[in-house]
Amino acid sequence: MGQKPVVSVDLIVIKDGKILLGKVSEKWSENGKYQWGLPGREIDFGDSFEQTVKKNLKEELGMELENFQVVCTNNNFGFGNHYVAIGILVEGKGEPKLMKPEDWKEWKWFDKNKIPDKLFPSGELTIKCFLENKSTIQ
Description:
There is one protein chain. By secondary structure, this protein is of the alpha+beta class. It has helices at 26-29, 49-61, 121-132, and strands spanning 6-15, 18-24, 36-37, 64-78, 81-93, 104-111. Helix content is 21%, strand content 40%.
């Protein structure tokens, strides 16, 4: 049967009209090719979207979930993998904390019109879908 895609979530955390991005660690930068990304991980078998979002917010950011909405899906290819990423708009409670320093260097809020270059592939597609109000790009 061969390889199959992995399903993951990209969390678009919004506060005061700004989007939260994480500066990726060297582990994920592919020698500086990527610098910023959205929080999110694979969906564990048996977990609902809500469970996945709650877990990711807590484990990656130390935040609590207030509300969420699925906004897009995309195919992402990077590091020899195939991910189907589900973009989820999130309202969280609390301030983001650096919970996984092996993956992230810092968290920073960006104006929607000033998103930095060198985005991790899945985050780039998810943000583009969100900003252009599209359900999918790829």
